[in-house]
Amino acid sequence: MKKATKAAALILAMAMAGSTLTACGGEKDAAPDAANTEAAGAEADASEENAAEDTDAAADTDAAAEDAAADAAEGEAAAGEEEAGAEAAGAVTTKTEGVLTFGTNAEFPPFEFVAGTGVIDQYDGIDMAIAKQIAEDNGMTAAIENMEFDSLLVALQNGQIDAAIAAMTVTEDRKEAVDFSVPYYTATQVMIVKEDSDIAAAADMADKKICVVQGYTGEICVNDMGYSYEAFKKGTEAVLELVNGKCDVVVIDSATAQKYVDDNEGLKIVEDASAFESEEYAVAVQKGNTALLDMINKAIEAKLADGTISDLGVQYTEAVTAE
């Protein structure tokens, strides 16, 4: 009985020891599993953090792309505005970039004549001073092409010059060929005769030998009156005919007539308001060149408003009279 009891006790002890060993073995196995679980959790957290960072990075990239697109759009808009501004600034085109080329007939003092030193190279006079100021007011340099008066309109139409300024009277016939600026000067036609002449009115020229300047308004007036005449290319040539007794009267613009009378003794001026209407001088441009015409008009209107052109008239008229 005691032996059986001892044996049972031994068996029970061995069983308890086995259970303890099993329990210890389970705890050892559970520890790696817990570590693995914790590591897996950490990896999951890291993955989530990385995913969040990737999302944020993607968002930043999208934002940067949007900003770049916005900047590009603004740049294109600015470029468009600059281009539009450049086109507007460059709307006025000239024969030579940066140069405004005027055609003239430098034989008509005090408006245009050749001098030792002029306002534009060797060219001086009221018109030359106006031409220079028009160009400079618009950031350009003025240049002069001197030619015969009746070649000016053809030169305009052919693009040889940008504008013509030559004490040119605005007429309906000329307006069919070119466009005119606002008038900058008003004059009239007069007759230059010798002091002992019996010509007192335009009607008295009927049986006289008349001289005019080719293409000038005086030629148009005499032709309209139905009188015969001889035309010269220069005013000085026509007046020389009168001085030398080869003609009886010269019909020419009032502004320049005084210069010729002052330069030549024995001559006088005869006026006839009923026969010669007042006329207006203007700058001519190629027909349809509205951009250049607008630019010239703006400059002339400013010079008329501030008295510049009036001052130039006085300055040059007194200068040529004093010579």
Structure explained in plain terms:
- The chain is α/β, with parallel strands linked by helices and 323 residues long.
- It folds into three domains: 58-89; 99-186 and 280-322, Periplasmic binding protein-like II (D-Maltodextrin-Binding Protein, domain 2), CATH 3.40.190.10; 189-277, 3-Layer(aba) Sandwich (D-Maltodextrin-Binding Protein, domain 2), CATH 3.40.190.10.
- The chain is built from nine helices and 15 strands.
- A five-stranded mixed sheet has the order 5-1-6-15-7. The chain has a five-stranded mixed sheet with strand order 11-10-12-9-13. Strands 2-3-4 form a three-stranded antiparallel sheet, with helices on one face.
| Gyration radius over CA | 49 Å
Number of domains: 3
- By CATH, the architecture of the largest domain is named 3-Layer(aba) Sandwich
CATH class of the largest domain equals: Alpha Beta
> What's the number of extended β-strand segments?
15
Coarse structural class? alpha/beta
- The rounded distance between the terminal residues' Cα atoms is 169 Å
Low-confidence stretches: 1-42, 78-89
User: What is the general shape?
Assistant: elongated
Helix count? 9
The residue-averaged pLDDT reads 81
| Name of the CATH homologous superfamily of the largest domain | Periplasmic binding protein-like II
Write out the strand line-up for the largest beta sheet, numbering strands in chain order: 5-1-6-15-7
Strand content: 15-25%
The ordered H/E elements are HEEEEHEHEHEEEEHEHEHEEEHH
